[in-house]
TrEMBL record:
Belongs to the acetyltransferase family. InterPro entries: Acyl_CoA_acyltransferase, Diverse_Substrate_AcTransf, GNAT_dom. This is Predicted N-acetyltransferase YhbS. GO terms for molecular function: N-acetyltransferase activity. PANTHER family: DIAMINE N-ACETYLTRANSFERASE (PTHR10545), GH14572P-RELATED (PTHR10545:SF29). Residues 1-159 form the N-acetyltransferase domain. Keywords: Acyltransferase, Transferase. CDD domains: NAT_SF (cd04301). Pfam families: Acetyltransf_1.
């Protein structure tokens, strides 16, 4: 297994992993992103994310997508958007290898924090994160405003 930084040629396989994650999270129709968008936003003039992949022979079997954020308390930090391992390859240390790569990436850059979300029913992931020393913030709630909510908010605000 090779853990490396992704390139734009990896994005078709990364998109397939993203779709597999959506199925795992019971949101099979939620993925709107395209290969073209991943290529443009990850490898264009001003990349918005970094992606690490786990590769076995010519197949991408896992991916971790990260991007920089800013904390008003801590400064520059890293957000782990998704850590995905192909279902048929889980339990083989691939997720841990990707996780290690993300943590090393943050450490090497002197970042003050790495943050991510985990579904409350994903007990395997929660146990792994807790064993790694990560702190689950049980008193915080994740808040999202989706596209239709944003449109409705702006329309109401402007009326």
């Amino acid at each position: 297994m090779l853990i490396r930084e992704a390139n734009n040629e990896d994005m078709p396989q990364v998109l397939e992993l993203i779709k597999e994650l959506a199925v795992f999270e019971n949101e099979p129709h939620a993925v709107e992103i395209t290969v073209e968008t991943l290529e443009k936003e990850g490898f264009g003039e001003t990349p918005l994310f970094t992606c690490f992949v786990a590769q076995i022979q010519d197949e991408i079997v896992g991916a971790a997508l990260v991007y920089f954020r800013f904390s008003t308390w801590k400064g520059r930090m890293l957000h782990l958007e998704d850590l995905i391992v192909k279902e048929s390859e889980r339990g083989k240390g691939i997720g841990e290898a990707l996780y290690n790569k993300v943590m090393q990436y943050a450490y090497d850059r002197g970042l003050k924090r790495v943050a991510w979300d985990v579904l409350d029913w994903n007990q395997g992931a929660i146990r792994f994160y807790e064993r790694s020393g990560a702190k689950l913030m049980t008193d915080w709630r994740v808040v999202h405003m989706d596209e239709s909510g944003l449109q409705n908010y702006i329309k109401r605000k402007d009326s």
